[in-house]
């Protein structure tokens, strides 16, 4: 089954939230769970990035690429980069993959490659 | 609201401390009580972020109030990430200003070096969003690095500007006997020499080792009192005249303009408005330079310099001791150190010390108005305090 990451669209005003909010930041609607999940688009533009060298102990790599991507629907999110030489503004494609591995758990998130 | 005064201050040495967390909080509190001459306290607030996770110590305030033999005074622990210190000062301010209490001890402590560097980095990263940030391996240096890259691109800040902040603050710390880092550095040593990249490796590109504050143990305390209590004391009167606090999105990525820190701007505006002063009135400031870029960005957001021009002021030496707007003469987080829960109070300690005219080698001449910015998360929970010397 293909994995997706979901944003949450308010049923009252259509504002899309990522990550999840209990209360809409657009219209302030106060009903429980009045949001529809919408899959995040996978194509976007890299706004900024870094390579992290001092990592939490779970990461057995010398350095880890991280970047902020603006997706085609305007949502901005953090993701890992599988890109050797990233450039600000470059087009990227995201896929959902393991981003953190702990003893009994795998955590899934967005990993971006050059488009 | 009633006026609130800083009657006493205290601080530990910052660095590695080999005594329990409660004592790291209690020691500066004892100094503050000695400083003010007051030994009867109505309420104790203890600022701390990591006691439960790093030191196996919960309910720290209960331990501290008893360590100080101040029971049955009220006591509460304030955990607000790296802005715990100033958040606890705000609670102390409200307690005195409201008339509920006359004497409040606000002390902060952290003992981060009990764990190794990887665990300390991971501990601080737990303040990030658990699903949208933390699982990716993001660290606070990583957030600062991505912010730095945008700032460099938009405003022309270079790695030399960052190094200038680091050199200034670490060398300022040489005049502060309590500071963690007691080693002078030069631009040549961290940037230009053939050994520079060995001395100063990347932590999160483009930020290097000397762009980041150290991981520190330490404590600091400020005693807040009413005007009535202050009148009876033989200490210079420093009033806490302005308190501001603002928040921003938990996830950094979703902010509308990722080069702005609106919570810093709003907190500073509130603080200045309450004090009936403006940024041009400030004589000395302590800004939250956990990373060198933050001193530049915050100096703009709080209104000392126009947006995008903080690095020009730095180039001209305006932010040095003796400059027009001295920033972090204590060494800042970069040089003094950053025991996260204590930092906001250590900033206030320095400002009260300066406004009393008791700062010795690092005294800013004729300082009457002082300002602190305590930056929690990556700009998602920020406090700004304005202090005024009276008399």
How would you explain this protein's 3D organization?
The complex is a heterodimer of chains A (115) and B (391). Chain A folds into 2 domains: 6-39; 43-114. Chain A has a 5-stranded mixed beta barrel with strand order 4-5-6-8-7. Chain A has a 3-stranded antiparallel beta sheet with strand order 2-1-3, with no helix packed on it. The relative contact order of chain A is 0.21. Chain A has no helices and 8 strands. Chain A is mostly beta strands and 115 residues long. Chain A has strands at 6-10, 16-17, 35-39, 43-52, 64-71, 76-81, 91-102, 105-114. Chain A is globular, with a radius of gyration of 16 Å. Chain B has a domain at 4-116 and 215-231: Thiolase/Chalcone synthase (Peroxisomal Thiolase, Chain A, domain 1, 3-Layer(aba) Sandwich), CATH 3.40.47.10. In chain B, the strands form 2 sheets. A 9-stranded mixed beta sheet of chain B has the order 3-2-4-7-1-8-11-10-9, with helices on both faces. In chain B, strands 5-6 form a two-stranded antiparallel sheet. Chain B has 15 helices and 11 strands. Chain B starts with a strand and ends with a strand. In chain B, helix 4 crosses helix 15. With 391 residues, chain B is α/β, with parallel strands linked by helices. Chain B has helices at residues 21-36, 51-54, 60-67, 84-97, 117-125, 140-155, 159-172, 187-192, 196-199, 227-231, 262-275, 292-301, 310-315, 332-336, 343-355; strands at residues 4-11, 43-47, 74-78, 103-111, 202-204, 207-208, 217-226, 238-247, 284-286, 369-376, 381-389. The interface between A and B is medium-sized, with 31 and 37 residues.
């Amino acid at each position: 089954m293909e994995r997706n990451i979901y944003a949450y669209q308010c049923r009252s005003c259509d504002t899309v939230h990522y990550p999840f909010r209990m209360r809409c930041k657009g219209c302030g609607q106060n009903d429980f769970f009045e949001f529809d999940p919408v899959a995040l688009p996978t194509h976007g533009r890299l706004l900024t990035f870094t390579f992290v060298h001092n990592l939490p102990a779970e990461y057995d790599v010398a350095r880890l690429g991280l970047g902020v991507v603006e997706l085609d629907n305007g949502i901005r999110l953090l993701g890992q980069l599988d890109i050797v030489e990233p450039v600000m503004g470059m087009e990227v494609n995201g896929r959902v993959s393991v981003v953190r591995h702990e003893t009994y758990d795998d955590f899934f998130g967005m990993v971006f490659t050059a488009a | 609201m009633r006026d609130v005064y800083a009657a006493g201050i205290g601080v530990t040495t910052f660095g590695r401390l080999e005594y329990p967390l409660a004592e790291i909080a209690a020691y500066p509190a004892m100094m503050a009580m000695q400083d003010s001459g007051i030994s009867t306290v109505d309420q104790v607030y203890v600022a701390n972020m990591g006691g439960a996770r790093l030191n196996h110590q919960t309910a720290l305030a209960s331990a501290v109030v008893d360590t100080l033999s101040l029971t049955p005074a009220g006591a509460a622990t304030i955990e607000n990430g790296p802005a715990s210190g100033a958040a606890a000062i705000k609670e102390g301010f409200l307690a005195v200003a409201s008339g509920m209490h006359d004497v409040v001890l606000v002390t902060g402590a952290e003992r981060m070096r009990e764990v190794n560097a990887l665990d300390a980095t991971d501990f601080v990263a737990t303040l990030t969003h658990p699903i949208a940030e933390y699982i990716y391996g993001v660290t606070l240096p990583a957030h600062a690095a991505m912010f730095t890259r945008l700032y460099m691109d938009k405003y022309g800040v270079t790695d030399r500007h960052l190094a200038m902040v680091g050199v200034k603050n670490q060398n300022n710390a040489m005049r502060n006997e309590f500071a963690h880092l007691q080693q002078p550095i030069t631009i040549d040593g961290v940037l230009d020499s053939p050994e520079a990249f060995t001395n100063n490796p990347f932590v999160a590109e483009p930020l290097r080792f000397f762009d980041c504050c150290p991981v520190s143990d330490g404590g600091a305390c400020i005693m807040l009192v009413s005007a009535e209590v202050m009148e009876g004391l033989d200490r210079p009167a420093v009033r806490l005249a302005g308190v501001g606090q603002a928040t921003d999105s938990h996830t950094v990525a979703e902010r509308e303009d990722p080069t702005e820190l609106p919570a810093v701007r709003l907190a500073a505006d509130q603080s200045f408005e309450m004090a009936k002063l403006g940024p041009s009135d400030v004589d000395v400031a302590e800004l939250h330079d956990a990373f060198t870029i933050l001193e530049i960005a915050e100096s703009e957001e709080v209104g000392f310099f126009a947006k995008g021009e903080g690095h020009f002021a730095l180039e001209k030496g305006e932010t040095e001791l003796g400059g027009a707007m001295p920033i972090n003469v204590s060494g800042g987080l970069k040089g003094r150190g950053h025991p996260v829960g204590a930092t906001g109070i250590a900033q206030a300690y320095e400002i009260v010390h300066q406004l009393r005219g008791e700062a010795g080698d690092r005294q800013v001449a004729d300082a009457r108005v002082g300002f602190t910015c305590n930056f929690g998360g990556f700009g998602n929970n920020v406090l700004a305090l304005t202090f005024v010397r009276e008399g």
